[in-house]
Amino acid sequence: MLHLYPDTDAPWELLAKHLAGEASAAEQAELHQWLTAAPSRLRLLTDATRAWERGGSVAEAFTEADVEPAWQRFSAAAGLQPTGGTAPAPPAPAETGRVVPMWDQAQTWMRVAAAVLLLVGFWAVARTFLWKSNAAQAVTVAAGPRRQLATLPDGSRVWVNKNSTLSYAADFNQTSRVVQLRGEAFFEVQKDHGRPFTVLAGDTRTRVLGTSFNVRAYATEDSVEVAVVTGRVAFAPDRQKLTVQDSVLLTPGLRGVIRRAAPAVAVQRRITDPNFRAWQHDELVFDNQSLGQVANTLTRYYGTSVALSRPELANCRFTGTFHQAELPQVLRVLSLSANLSVTQSADGYTLDGPGCPSL
What we know:
Layout: H1 12-20, H2 25-36, H3 42-55, H4 58-61, H5 64-78, H6 108-136, E1 139-143, E2 148-151, E3 157-160, E4 164-168, E5 177-188, E6 197-201, E7 204-208, E8 212-217, E9 223-230, E10 233-237, E11 248-250, E12 254-259, E13 266-270, H7 278-281, E14 283-290, H8 291-302, E15 305-308, E16 317-323, H9 327-338, E17 341-345, E18 348-352
Parallel strand pairs: 5-6, 15-18
Antiparallel strand pairs: 1-4, 2-3, 3-5, 4-5, 5-8, 6-7, 7-10, 8-9, 9-12, 10-11, 12-13, 14-16, 17-18
Helix pairs in contact: 1-6, 5-6
């Protein structure tokens, strides 16, 4: 059975010339470089070669009715000028029922490319069908008011934050390791050097081999962020949706940020918020943090705006730990320790007052 391959940028022309034995040394080297860039691509060469050997020739693998339209599509795609308005016509079928093409030897690779193009057309139709089929069989982890821990088929563990959704194909770990995220999740990925683990979130793509990292991609926020705890992560805009190509390599202690507004490029920064995983443990820890950082952390953690009435208040420092605490309780403790008052409005909470003694 013909395998279907997810890489739509396969060098079909080079593959066809290789099968026909017409590829130059430089073209063979170019095809070899593309094939070895990803382990899954080697299957393409293997299956194409086996299909070629079984068929013996394109004429045995495809009928005259199949090859003629494929040739026309290939000519148009390759920018070739048709001879006499049409492709060279093969003769009538022999008694055995075979179609014996009469194209000259110099065009053998073009003949094969036309056949390969026919396979590509079949793959495009089949991929659409399979995508719809897999979409119906997709596994979805939807965390409602409480976070959820999901164990993927490859053994990787994912903590899905509340009001976030993680989904992956039913055949995950059989052909590829790709998940889609809406919201926030923390990943502990099992190592598999043959198959990278990919997270698609908010028009961004995160690729790893085996590591732990946090992805934050809420539709209501203006950016997508990835923070790395262990291992290495490649973070970039999703090349299937965005034209700008800019990626960063993230190591422990670093985070990547991609703004949704154009140009969408990945920026590398240090992790400055020690509570970026607080949602995972239901615990906030502040160790001599500035009040400005505390307000930002509370806003992200609770999803409710916490603002300071005056810029100078941001310089105050706060130390404290809160475990499974509600926001009003945290603000009560904060106001008492920093000599502040708390005002609530439809937009959230505002801290005001004289502030710390040093101001």
